[in-house]
Structure formats: structure tokens, C-alpha cells
């Protein structure tokens, strides 16, 4: 298909078909999630589940790709689906307009090839890690704040988030509220998360598994911490 012609130097025909047949769940359709879903849709991931029970507000306009002045107050997941139907009508987008929690996490995440964390709170991130492990699904974690971001890929029973967010920590939110989120950091971290998803799906390349990529754009530092 001509749509995917520019993928073909980086991906084989078989790998493009594999992406077309893959199912990825993104939890969060805001700053990170909007860009992640956009890139997965454009590269041709065939089945995308977008989970978010929140609505857009004016503070989202500085960084959230899907937000605009005419959809303030509207569902983030449903507006994301509308945009993706324009971007790539050949794939299937399922919008889940509820928040993921302990009562629904297993049922919402099951049957996916990869789960992507595009959230801003630690409790739900850890819940995704637990559920993904139970369901034997790899997950990709990303977080942002100010000029900074981090990405890691977590396979079942790796429990990498326990290293990042120890059990005795009293912090429940990420650093976004404290440091803010300028427009340039979400697409960068989202791009790295998407690259990890693609590498999982096509089973090629070096993953950030048991490694955490720490990004500091203020000082132009990209460091990998092995755990």
C-alpha cells in the first residue's frame, strides 16, 4: 500500500504486515498518549485501544496534540479516535472513555500485544505493571516533567517500576505538576516509547529492558541506567 511506502526502507514487508496485525493498548490520551497513538496509527499498527476517562481543558492546549479550542470539555479518548479515523481509516481504533482502575485493568488490558503507559500518576502505572505481568504482556513506560523524561520497557515480572517508585515512597503523582510540561518534551518521549513498541512487535533491535533512559534536554544529557 502506498501509504506505507516510506516505511519500507526501515521495515520489511513482513514487518509492516506484522504491525498491521498487532494490537496495542495506550493508557492515557493526553500529552504523551496523543502523540503515541498518532505515531502508531501512522506507522500502521492495526488495532489500537485508547483508554482515558478525562476531558480536554484549556490547560492542555500547550502540549496535547489532539486538543484544540473546539473540543474543550470533550472526551480525550473519543476525540483521539475521531482524529485517527482521519489519519488512517484502515486501522481500528477503540476508544474507552473510562479511567483504568483495579476493577477493570485486567479486562481492559487483556488480548493486547503491548501496553503503553502514557499516564501522570504512579499508582495507576504500578497497576498497569501488575496487570500486564499477570496477563503476560510487555509494557512500555514513559514519564515527563519540565525538560526531563524517562522511558523503560518492562516485561512480565521485571517490576522495573518498583525500582523507579519504591513501595515506601509517599509520592503518588509524577513530577509533571511541579516542573510543568512544555510543548517539546511529550513528542520526544512519546517517539522513544513508540520505537520500543515497534521493536517489541517486530522482535528486532535492542530494547530498554532492565534499563532506564533518562533524558535531560536542558543540559542535553541522555543517560541509560541499568538495573
From TrEMBL:
**Source species:** [Clostridium] ultunense Esp
Q: Gene3D superfamilies, per this entry? A: NAD(P)-binding Rossmann-like Domain (3.40.50.720)
Q: Which domain of life is it from?
A: Bacteria
Which PANTHER family does the record match to this protein? TRNA THREONYLCARBAMOYLADENOSINE DEHYDRATASE
The THIF-type NAD/FAD binding fold domain covers 4-225
InterPro entries in the cross-refs: ThiF/MoeB/HesA, ThiF_NAD_FAD-bd, Ubiquitin-activating_enz
Molecular function, one GO term: tRNA threonylcarbamoyladenosine dehydratase
Name under which the protein is recorded: ThiF family protein
GO BP of this protein: cyclic threonylcarbamoyladenosine biosynthetic process
UniProt lineage: Bacteria, Bacillati, Bacillota, Tissierellia, Tissierellales
Amino acid at each position: 500500500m502506498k501509504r506505507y511506502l516510506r516505511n519500507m526502507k526501515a521495515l520489511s514487508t513482513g514487518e509492516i504486515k506484522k504491525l498491521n496485525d498487532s494490537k496495542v493498548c495506550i493508557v492515557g490520551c493526553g500529552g504523551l498518549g496523543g502523540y503515541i497513538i498518532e505515531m502508531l496509527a501512522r506507522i500502521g499498527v492495526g488495532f489500537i485501544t485508547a483508554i482515558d476517562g478525562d476531558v480536554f481543558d484549556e490547560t492542555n492546549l500547550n502540549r496535547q496534540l489532539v486538543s484544540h479550542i473546539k473540543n474543550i470539555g470533550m472526551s480525550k479518548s473519543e476525540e483521539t479516535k475521531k482524529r485517527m479515523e482521519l489519519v488512517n481509516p484502515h486501522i481500528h481504533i477503540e476508544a474507552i472513555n473510562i479511567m483504568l482502575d483495579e476493577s477493570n485493568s485486567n479486562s481492559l488490558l487483556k488480548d493486547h500485544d503491548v501496553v503503553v503507559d502514557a499516564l501522570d500518576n504512579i499508582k495507576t502505572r504500578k497497576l498497569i505493571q501488575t496487570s500486564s505481568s499477570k496477563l503476560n504482556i510487555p509494557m512500555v513506560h514513559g514519564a515527563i516533567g519540565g525538560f526531563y523524561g524517562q522511558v523503560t520497557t518492562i516485561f512480565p515480572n521485571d517490576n522495573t517500576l518498583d525500582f523507579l517508585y519504591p513501595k515506601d515512597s509517599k509520592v503518588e503523582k509524577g513530577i509533571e505538576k511541579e516542573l510543568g510540561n512544555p510543548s517539546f518534551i511529550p513528542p520526544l518521549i512519546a517517539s522513544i516509547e513508540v520505537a520500543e513498541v515497534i521493536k517489541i512487535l517486530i522482535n528486532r533491535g535492542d530494547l530498554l529492558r532492565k534499563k532506564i533512559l533518562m533524558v535531560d534536554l536542558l543540559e542535553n544529557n541522555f543517560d541509560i541506567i541499568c538495573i
